[in-house]
Design a protein that fits this description.
flat, mainly alpha, 51% helix
Length: 118
């Protein structure tokens, strides 16, 4: 399991996971710690604790997504980061649609500013 562990506690919380990618610095910290390390993850326990399957229509899914603020925010960031021009293109489509309904020409969108090379 590849991850960006920031401290020893994050690694200890995954005790029982078979494969972890751990930085040399954190491996050194772990090797110096001689305390107990109880297993926290167990595949047999996970297999016996399978949640019930949800059957959702789109309306129910969207309601549940909107009720979860973190999921909504993560989805928004994902969509914005997926294509930097996505938000601009979406706004352009809305402006063009509004302009066409009103009989006015849609305003052109300026390209995004590019950072100056160092």
């Amino acid at each position: 399991m590849g991850a960006s562990f920031r401290n020893q506690g994050e690694i200890e919380a995954l005790a029982g996971c078979d494969r972890l990618t751990i930085s040399p610095q954190l491996l050194e910290e772990l090797s110096r710690d001689m305390g107990d390390l109880p297993r926290r993850l167990d595949s047999s326990a996970a297999a016996s604790n399978v949640p019930a399957k949800l059957s959702l229509d789109e309306k129910s899914f969207r309601f549940m997504l909107n009720e979860d603020a973190m999921a909504t925010e993560k989805a928004r960031r994902r969509d914005q980061g997926f294509c930097p021009g996505f938000a601009r293109a979406a706004r352009a489509g809305v402006e063009a649609a509004a302009g066409s309904r009103l009989g006015a020409a849609a305003k052109p969108i300026a390209p995004a500013p590019r950072p100056a090379p160092n």
